[in-house]
Design goal:
CATH class: Alpha Beta
CATH topology: Rossmann fold
Strand content: 5-15%
Structural class: alpha/beta
Number of strands: 5
Largest sheet: 5 strands, parallel
Number of domains: 1
Strand order of the largest sheet: 2-3-1-4-5
Distance between the termini: 48 Å
């Protein structure tokens, strides 16, 4: 496999086809060039979390040539104050119709058997009420919250979940090495099994 040189930040928005994309990125880049970053700032309130994220403005994590970082990270972590040293980083994401994304998130939590998950436990305490879930402040403006301190204009490509194959091809062709063929998108069937559950 040829070595890609493009530095990439691929922001995985929650419930936007992440497993399929991750498996496809592994095929395209190899695990040695794919860095998974699902480390949040656990146990902190929003103000404390934002204060922590702001430390990356002056001191972002440096990506090596050919590295693609993928996960639920906030891109400020790698882009900092958007200075010249990060201008070559290709920044992309895939977005989903917001109500469909919310329903998928809800179904995911219903199927989750993890007593340590605070949102699942809160949902259980509210008798799995979708209306209660949909009104939670932490779920409002989820896309813009994920892009914390990074304007939408800094994203080089925004794919669409509803056109996943086209979105995948556009992104893969940008980050692969020039001689490399693009693998087909690997489909995950995990979401399909949950999607038949009706919303109460």
């Amino acid at each position: 496999m040829a070595t890609p040189s493009q530095r990439t930040c691929f922001v995985h928005m929650p419930k936007c086809g992440g497993t399929s994309v991750r498996l496809s990125l592994e095929k395209l880049l190899g695990k040695e060039h794919l860095h998974l970053d699902y480390g949040g700032v656990p146990g902190k309130g929003e103000v404390e979390r934002h204060s922590h994220l702001l430390t990356y403005m002056k001191c972002p994590i440096q990506l090596e040539s050919g590295c693609c970082v993928y996960g639920h990270f906030r891109p400020v972590k790698y882009l900092g104050d958007l200075g010249p040293s990060t201008q070559d980083i290709f920044v992309c994401t895939i977005l989903r119709e917001p109500i469909d994304r919310l329903i998928s998130h809800y179904r995911y939590l219903l199927a989750l058997d993890d007593p340590g998950n605070a949102m699942r436990e809160a949902l259980r305490e509210h008798q799995d009420d979708f209306a209660w879930f949909a009104m939670q402040p932490r779920l409002r403006n989820i896309y813009s919250r994920h892009l914390f301190q990074v304007p939408l204009s800094r994203l080089n490509y925004v794919g669409i979940y509803e056109k996943m194959n086209d979105s995948w091809l556009a992104i893969a062709n940008r980050i692969k090495s020039s001689s490399q063929a693009v693998p087909q998108l690997t489909r995950s069937n995990r979401t399909d099994e949950r999607s038949s559950k009706p919303i109460p």
